[in-house]
């Protein structure tokens, strides 16, 4: 089996942990005011894999710098619309909105968010999300983890890794013991929930210890520690119970846990709360494998096995057919989203518009004329490659309401094919020219019909300032905003639109992202995705 837990790489990983521990101890000699000690504090090496270093996975890194702030983020692209990608991006987007809505009057605050892989296998994907905020000389750091369970198809909190809440309580006790014995921290000085639990409180609801009732019923038999060969216990394997437990244990250091290279847990603690930790960016408290063994849920065992196997991405991972595929990445039901749409192109100004959109990592929807697709192939290909959405705006801007059903079908099909030949995909939606449609149009098309709720009238008023002001004044969460990229003045208005909406915490998405999937029905007409 290769190791005491049956994982082949365990011996090599443990050797690496020992080397790092020795290096950390020797490093104390180089810090002024520090003295070498006979034994370094207990140390865990966490299994954390950068998405840039993971075979088969691509990461997207974005930085938007303005005169009032800098926001940056990196996330792994796990295939179009993968639940972990959507949840990771959505949480980062919500954090970014909160940051931008609370900017101080002075300075240029910065928010940088990152995601690293904690575990990856056909059964589970674990991701650690971090956020570092800098305001002047003050810096704050936040971290938590998410776990995708392929069995349920849901993204779950850290509590899902544990058998029940009693197991969570025992994990806190294990951390407390390490801090007391390894860091010489008296029980009365143990920080946060770790201290509360160690002192006989913490983690209790209505005067009772949570999970106690289910512990006897659902505890893993001693002869079968992993619970293999039997149904998963109801405990925290139930997504709703796992989420309730996460709310109950909010603020726990276990929110930022990883598996250690030794096969146990590595729990991050704030070094400022541990005086004996010395000068270090983080304290990773080890919970040894023997202390972890009976605490994990089946998902926890699967996550540990994935972490210790090296998080090697391969064809068996539940990450979609194309790991780097562009697709639905934001849940706009939980965000301030707006869809910027551009009609009648592509044209000579479309390339400049794409450059402008890229500065804000903005996704837009282009309702193209089929007759212009072959005339401007490069912008069309670039739209698709950069994650924008192409919509069908008929072949030559014909009034669909004046056509027969057969004429409508031929026109839409011809434009669909022109786009598909260049991009490989058929436009998911249609925008009827002039917004003109009737029952015949609705019955004759196989795609949703998208109108708008914010008409900038840029085709009529060729004034960039007036266009941008109208868009900024009338856009609300869920808006579909109409522009035309064939007009230079319209393209010149977009920098101000992006800057103004970004400052308000908006996110720029495609039409299908705005409405969500599968939120659009063929033949139905939509103007916006505003929440009533």
From TrEMBL:
<dbReference type="InterPro" id="IPR002509">
    <property type="entry name" value="NODB_dom"/>
</dbReference>
<protein>
    <submittedName>
        <fullName>Polysaccharide deacetylase</fullName>
    </submittedName>
</protein>
<keyword id="KW-0378">Hydrolase</keyword>
<dbReference type="GO" id="GO:0016020">
    <property type="term" value="C:membrane"/>
</dbReference>
<dbReference type="InterPro" id="IPR011330">
    <property type="entry name" value="Glyco_hydro/deAcase_b/a-brl"/>
</dbReference>
<feature type="signal peptide">
    <location>
        <begin position="1"/>
        <end position="36"/>
    </location>
</feature>
<keyword id="KW-0479">Metal-binding</keyword>
<dbReference type="GO" id="GO:0005975">
    <property type="term" value="P:carbohydrate metabolic process"/>
</dbReference>
<feature type="domain" description="NodB homology">
    <location>
        <begin position="336"/>
        <end position="509"/>
    </location>
</feature>
<feature type="region of interest" description="Disordered">
    <location>
        <begin position="194"/>
        <end position="250"/>
    </location>
</feature>
<keyword id="KW-0732">Signal</keyword>
<feature type="compositionally biased region" description="Basic and acidic residues">
    <location>
        <begin position="225"/>
        <end position="247"/>
    </location>
</feature>
<dbReference type="InterPro" id="IPR050248">
    <property type="entry name" value="Polysacc_deacetylase_ArnD"/>
</dbReference>
<dbReference type="GO" id="GO:0046872">
    <property type="term" value="F:metal ion binding"/>
</dbReference>
<dbReference type="GO" id="GO:0016810">
    <property type="term" value="F:hydrolase activity, acting on carbon-nitrogen (but not peptide) bonds"/>
</dbReference>
<dbReference type="Pfam" id="PF01522">
    <property type="entry name" value="Polysacc_deac_1"/>
</dbReference>
């Amino acid at each position: 089996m290769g190791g005491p837990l049956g994982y082949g790489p365990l011996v090599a990983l443990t050797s690496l942990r020992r080397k790092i521990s020795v290096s950390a101890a020797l490093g104390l000699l180089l810090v002024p005011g520090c003295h070498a000690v006979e034994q370094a504090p207990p140390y865990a090496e966490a299994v954390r894999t950068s998405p840039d270093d993971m075979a088969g996975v691509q990461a997207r890194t974005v930085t938007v710098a303005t005169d009032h702030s800098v926001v940056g983020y990196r996330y792994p692209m796990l295939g179009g619309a993968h639940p972990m990608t959507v949840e990771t991006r959505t949480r980062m987007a919500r954090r970014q909105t909160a940051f931008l809505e609370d900017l101080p009057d002075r300075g240029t605050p910065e928010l940088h968010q990152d995601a690293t892989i904690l575990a990856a296998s056909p059964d589970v994907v674990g991701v650690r999300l971090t956020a570092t905020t800098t305001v002047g000389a003050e810096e704050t750091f936040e971290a938590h983890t998410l776990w995708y369970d392929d069995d349920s198809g849901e993204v779950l909190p850290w509590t899902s890794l544990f058998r029940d809440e009693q197991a969570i309580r025992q994990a806190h006790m294990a951390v407390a013991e390490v801090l007391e014995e390894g860091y010489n921290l008296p029980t009365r000085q143990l920080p946060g929930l770790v201290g509360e639990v160690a002192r006989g409180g913490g983690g209790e609801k209505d005067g009772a210890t949570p999970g106690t009732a289910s512990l006897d019923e659902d505890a893993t038999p001693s002869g079968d520690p992993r619970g293999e060969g039997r149904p998963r216990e109801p405990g925290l394997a139930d997504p709703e119970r796992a989420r309730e437990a996460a709310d109950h244990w909010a603020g726990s250091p276990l929110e930022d846990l990883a598996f250690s290279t030794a096969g146990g847990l590595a729990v991050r603690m704030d070094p400022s709360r541990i005086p004996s930790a010395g000068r270090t960016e983080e304290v990773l408290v080890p919970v040894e494998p023997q202390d972890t063994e009976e605490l994990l849920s089946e998902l926890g065992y699967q996550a540990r096995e994935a972490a210790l196997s090296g998080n090697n991405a391969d064809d068996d991972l539940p990450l979609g057919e194309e790991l780097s595929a562009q697709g639905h990445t934001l849940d706009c039901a939980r965000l301030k989203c707006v869809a910027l749409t551009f009609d009648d192109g592509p044209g000579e100004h479309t390339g400049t518009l794409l450059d402008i959109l890229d500065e804000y990592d903005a996704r837009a929807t282009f309702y193209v004329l089929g007759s212009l697709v072959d005339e401007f192939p490069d912008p069309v290909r670039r739209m698709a490659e950069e994650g924008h959405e192409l919509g069908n705006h008929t072949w030559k801007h014909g009034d669909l309401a004046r056509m027969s059903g057969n004429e409508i079908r031929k026109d839409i099909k011809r434009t669909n094919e022109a786009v598909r030949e260049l991009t490989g995909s058929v436009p998911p939606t249609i925008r009827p020219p002039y917004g003109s449609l009737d029952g015949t149009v609705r019955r004759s098309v196989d795609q949703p019909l998208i109108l708008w709720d914010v008409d900038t009238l840029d085709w009529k008023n060729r004034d960039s300032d007036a266009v941008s002001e109208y868009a900024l004044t009338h856009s609300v969460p869920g808006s579909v905003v109409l522009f035309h990229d064939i007009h230079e003045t319209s393209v010149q208005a977009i920098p101000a639109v992006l800057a103004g909406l970004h400052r308000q915490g908006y996110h720029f998405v495609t039409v299908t992202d705005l409405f969500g999937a599968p939120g659009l029905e063929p033949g139905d007409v939509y103007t916006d995705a505003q929440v009533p």
